[in-house]
Amino acid sequence: MQNKQELLSVITLLAFGVFLILYSLLGLEIGTPRRMSVGFFPLVLGILLVVISGLMAFTYDRARVTKILIDWRACGFVSVAMIVFGLTLRPLGLLPAVMLLCVIASLASRYFHLKTALIVGATVGILTYTLFVVLLDVQLPLIGGWL
Amino acid sequence: MTDFFSNIALGLSVAVSVQNLLFCFIGVFIGTLVGVIPGIGPMTAIALLMPVTFKMEPTTALIMLAGIWYGTGYGGRTASIMLNLPGSPSNAVTCLDGYPLTKAGRGGMALFMTTMASFGGGTIGVIILMVLSPLVAQVAMSFGAPEYFALMLFGLIASSVIAGEAPLKGVAMVIIGIAIGLIGTDINTGDLRFTFGTMSLMDGIAIATLAMGLFGISEIIASVNGDDAPKAGGNTKEFTSNILPTKSEARRSILPVLRGSGIGAFFGALPGTGPSVAAFISYAVEKGISKTPQNFGKGAIEGIMAPEASDNAAEQTAFIPTLALGIPGSATMALMLGALMIHGIAPGPTLATDEPALFWGLIMSFWIGNVMLVLLNVPLIGLWVRLLSMPYLWLFPSVLVFIGIGVYTVHMSTFDIWLVVAFGLAGIWFRALNFPIAPLLLGFVLGPIMEEHFRRAMMMSRGKVDIFFTHPVSAALIAITVGLILVTAYRSWRSHAAQTVKNATS
């Protein structure tokens, strides 16, 4: 029972800040204020983030109870759908990749319906083929690549 | 003055070319569409369409993208009035009096009259934009590196602390955005930063990929099983007949439209406040000065006319800092700048003189776009009403497909698809922690330019930070920025203290 939102915000910012500081100190040249090098700006940004996370850590409302609300089901299916799309786009071609994306992504919804997903996939596949490949000259085959 | 008119003539001649008219129409059409449908915002729509514009003329590309932006202002009120469900955040206030009008059977009149209010507000906004932006650009011509850095600092801080309820989180998002903007090859030294050995990151992150992930993917994940997903459709008949107002309603609408436009024009041009804030304030003003404040919330016509006019005026004047200074005041304007830069056009005060055809052509297209929007929204209202009942099961997979192909075309590589997923998940994480997303995009666009100006200023001053305080313009801007931070800190300290007292006593 705690203010999870704020606690995790502080941790997220601290992690970002520390990463920026370490990366610029170890991997980049800092230079001097007069002749700033590439590490100067990221170092300053990192320090600012650490300061902000510190300010938040001291001021947030500890009496409030908050929860992290994430729709994990939607997160999972949408991400997997996009990744499968990326993997199949060139080997299988535009239409199969689009149909796979639509079916997997539709599983994210509570109202999943296979037939609807397939119809949506086919329609959108042909529409995007017309728009991107025919009209905009993007080099993508409708079906089959170099399988 | 003759200059002014020849510029207008030039702008008109650009805006009425067949190609520009066509894409202006496509833009406002898509804008109305995404405005009508809750769950997809203008940001997602503009980011989605960005890859399509890569091969267009820059002027045409901007005309279309801008059309989406102000088109959503027209479309958004449809869902507010009919379903009590704001199509986009800036139309939320319109629900208060718009939905009661629908319940009283006056929904058709409310839709018709707010279209007129939007047109009035949009028109006034464009006039102010035409007059003010050349003047602002003229003033900015004399700015050097320190002034620019201070101006950008002010813009970023203002836009992250003014409207948001969590100012520290807003500033943190700006900083993270700046850091993401630094990814890639440094223009001065050729050094690689944050590329982790991947070739694909050497050119940096494409703004379209970032925006589609942070807004598009995360918006979809957040709304796919939420209440935002549109379900119910309305009865079309009720909204297409009986649309004319009574004489008294028409008379009571004029002043709220004018006041709303004024308020909107002012807040639209400022960083940090945009259409949403403008609409909210003008509603409060109307309620405050009304002789019958008890009617507000029960279907007062003033309560829908003022916010709708305000919202559309603000959408137009938001272009003043973007076009005249090259400094966007909101995330959407940052996308517009990004689209300019993709075409190799450097934004800044010289834009109006270097690219007069683009500058004036874009502005004049706003007039045409606003007229098109009235034509689209009045006779076609039945179509939009029916679209509201389009199931989300159709909509969201299609948007994902568009995102997938869109980011693929950015570099013709699947790497951008992995990136867009990563940004989508990051967006979900930040949403869950209550971080505002828009400041990140602003930081991303302005970050590299800011670093450049900061570096130049430090070279001018031989490493002394005084330079920002000895130049009067930058000193004034930094003073305002510091004042803003102090006021915000005081406000949140006070509410924090009040909270602690409340917790102690309860």
| End-to-end distance of chain B | 66 Å
- Could you describe the largest sheet of chain A, including whether it forms a barrel? none
Q: Helix content range of the residues of chain B, please?
A: over 70%
Counting DSSP E segments of at least 2 residues, the number of strands of chain A comes to 0
Order of helices and strands of chain A: HHHHH
Strand order of the largest sheet of chain B: 1-2
Gap between N and C termini of chain A, in Å?
A: 54 Å
| Succession of helices and strands of chain B | HHHHHHHHEEHHHHHHHHHHHHHHH
- What is the radius of gyration of chain B? 23 Å
Number of helices of chain B: 23
Largest sheet of chain B: 2 strands, antiparallel
| Low-confidence spans of chain B | 228-233
Task: Explain what this protein looks like in three dimensions.
The complex is a heterodimer of chains A (147) and B (506). Chain A is built from 5 helices and no strands. By secondary structure, chain A is an all-alpha fold. In chain A, helix 1 runs antiparallel to helix 2. The model of chain A has no long low-confidence stretch (mean pLDDT 87). Chain B is mainly alpha-helical. Helices cover 74% and strands 1% of the residues of chain B. Chain B is built from 23 helices and 2 strands. In chain B, helix 4 runs parallel beside helix 17, helix 6 runs antiparallel to helix 17 and helix 19 packs across helix 20. The longest helix of chain B is centred in the first third of the chain and has 34 residues. Chain B is globular and about 70 Å long. The interface between A and B is large, with 73 and 68 residues.
